[in-house]
């Protein structure tokens, strides 16, 4: 399968809110024709209506891929829309947090190829990362198809076990929110030190974006990159002594935050 096969047979998107539209923006920017995408969503956004995709119209009989991007709590109402699809080699991909492959197998049948995926919103600018795992029916070709579609909006990693999905959700699925909060709080801290709000925000955004890009591009690991910023007895050391505090510093806080997200993912999958 390549992107032209997906374009020829059609892609169905069930739910096009924040995550669905982030991915759709990335696919359209990557050249997927809008006319090959059918969206089902009772509340299509203005942005979606301007893209030229087919919205709430009859679906192709056997689309290449159906991607499910509704909230876990909406799944019961949304999935019956899809029961008539499949059978013709359609691959189902779900990005729903905390919704197990078994849940989809109950509704769509265990003989249906299903890939569970956890993307993140930087997909909108094709800088996302998505973790995937297939059910027993999903073939190597199905996993390659899922990887092809999702790699159009960023990196793709394959998991060994579905149980890893809860922690992945806690790290990279929810992770952009932690980084956005870091930007907000870094800018607010700059303001507290007397900088104008706009300047503080520009400094914070560029610092996070630049450090992220350097962390990805550099040969050194992030620990060494941190050391490179830290002059002995200088300003960074003064800050890191606060941030790396064993009691209430970053390590403790992030461990608790990622743990809370992971546990919530586990809770959602228990229903
Ligand atoms: N927002 C994020 O950063 C991420 C979200 N996810 C997962 O993506 C899924 C969607 O999350 P968001 O996009 O954030 O939520 P959202 O609330 O922005 O989008 C959900 C969309 O589903 C639509 N919808 C509601 N009932 C429907 C139905 N019966 N049929 C079809 N569409 C229906 C809504 O109108 C809405 O546009 C969730 O399962 C979430 O766990 C996964 C990774 C990251
Ligand atoms: O907050 C959530 O439940 C979803 C899953 C990962 C990011 N957003």
Automatic annotation (TrEMBL):
Annotated Pyrroline-5-carboxylate reductase catalytic N-terminal domain residues: 12-98
**UniProt xrefs under Pfam families:** F420_oxidored, P5CR_dimer
Q: Which transformation does this protein catalyse, written as a reaction?
A: L-proline + NAD(+) = (S)-1-pyrroline-5-carboxylate + NADH + 2 H(+); L-proline + NADP(+) = (S)-1-pyrroline-5-carboxylate + NADPH + 2 H(+)
Q: Where in the cell is it found?
A: Cytoplasm
- Which Enzyme Commission numbers does its entry carry? 1.5.1.2
The family database entries (SUPFAM superfamilies) matched by this protein are listed as:
6-phosphogluconate dehydrogenase C-terminal domain-like, NAD(P)-binding Rossmann-fold domains
Where is each Pyrroline-5-carboxylate reductase dimerisation domain found?
162-268
Q: Which Gene3D superfamilies match?
A: NAD(P)-binding Rossmann-like Domain, ProC C-terminal domain-like
Q: Which UniProt keywords apply?
A: Amino-acid biosynthesis, Cytoplasm, NADP, Oxidoreductase, Proline biosynthesis
Superkingdom, according to UniProt?
Bacteria
In which pathway is this protein known to take part?
Amino-acid biosynthesis; L-proline biosynthesis; L-proline from L-glutamate 5-semialdehyde: step 1/1
Main subcellular localisation: cytoplasm
Please describe what this protein does: Catalyzes the reduction of 1-pyrroline-5-carboxylate (PCA) to L-proline.
NCBIfam families linked? proC (TIGR00112)
What family does the database annotate?
Answer: Belongs to the pyrroline-5-carboxylate reductase family.
Name of the protein this chain belongs to: Pyrroline-5-carboxylate reductase
The gene is proC
């Amino acid at each position: 399968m390549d992107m032209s096969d997906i374009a020829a047979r059609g892609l169905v998107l069930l739910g096009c809110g924040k995550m669905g539209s982030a991915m759709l923006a990335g696919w359209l920017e990557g050249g997927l024709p809008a006319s090959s995408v059918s969206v089902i969503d009772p509340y299509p956004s203005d942005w979606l209506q301007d893209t030229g995709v087919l919205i709430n119209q009859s679906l192709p009989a056997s689309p290449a891929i159906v991607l499910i991007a509704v909230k876990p709590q909406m799944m019961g109402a949304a999935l019956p829309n899809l029961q008539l699809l499949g059978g013709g080699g359609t691959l189902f991909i779900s990005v729903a947090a905390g919704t197990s492959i078994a849940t989809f197998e109950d509704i769509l049948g265990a003989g249906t190829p299903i890939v569970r995926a956890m993307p993140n919103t930087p997909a909108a600018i094709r800088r996302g990362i998505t973790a995937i795992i297939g059910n027993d029916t999903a073939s190597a070709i199905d996993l390659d198809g899922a990887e092809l579609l999702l790699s159009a909006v960023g990196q793709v990693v394959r998991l060994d076990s579905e149980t890893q999905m809860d922690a992945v959700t806690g790290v990279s699925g929810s992770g952009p929110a932690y980084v956005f909060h870091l930007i907000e709080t870094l800018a607010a801290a700059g303001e507290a030190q007397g900088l104008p709000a706009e300047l503080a925000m520009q400094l914070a955004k560029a610092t996070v974006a630049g450090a992220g890009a350097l962390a990805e591009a550099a040969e050194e690991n992030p620990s060494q990159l941190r050391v490179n910023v830290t002059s002995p007895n200088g300003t960074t050391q003064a800050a890191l002594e606060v941030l790396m505090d064993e009691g209430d510093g970053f390590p403790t806080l992030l461990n608790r935050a990622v743990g809370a997200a992971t546990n919530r993912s586990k809770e959602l999958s228990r229903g």
